[in-house]
Amino acid sequence: MMYLKSLLVAAFVFIACSVFAQSASTIRLFGGIGGGERNEKGLIIPTNPKLEVSALCALTTGYEIGKFRISAGFSFASTSKKETKTGLLWESDFQFDTIGQSTSTGTTYTHYAVFRYAGVPVSVGYIVPLSERIRVIPEIGAIPAITLPIVYTYINESTKEKRTSTHKAGNTYNVFSLSGLGLVTIEFDIARYASLNAGGYYTYQFTNMVSSQPKGSLHEQTYGGTIGVTFKL
Question: 52: closest CA among 81, 83, 77?
Fold first, then answer.
């Protein structure tokens, strides 16, 4: 909770300063979806490196100085990975013959893990006008974030039975993370104080995800497309 409070306070202070600043300010809301991979090294139990889905949503305020835009705000990100395994997971998997010897062979099941992050994205962009109404804004920055409870779902491939459980970060996975952020956004004015925005995002997790394996490392990278709206204050 200490991490979350610090992130929220930092974002609130920046937003308040931007809104009441004399120079041009913007408020941007966008959401995006895409894919990604996991880069792992030295893990005791290797995982599937491919991410099924990644998502990034953010509400930021920007403070423009000349052609530069400094932005900060709040973000929610999630990643989902899928693995097919065989093991003894359901009660029906544990079978015994008439003399008490185990005849269990295990069940094939699909395992989904959804990781969610609440963060404070901070970025610096450069405004490149293409016309009076259209501009491109490449941005680089970082997202300090906390890991929200992780959701695990298990689906029995034979019976289609589904079980879901939630686990807090801190034992196996670190609570705090720091990711690099890259954005390329095209803004198109639809009114004097409003514009549509669309583009792409890329993130790379600098910090190690795992805390239970000191000699192992796990880092996520995500990418995808975004769409949203920008308001000028």
Answer: 81
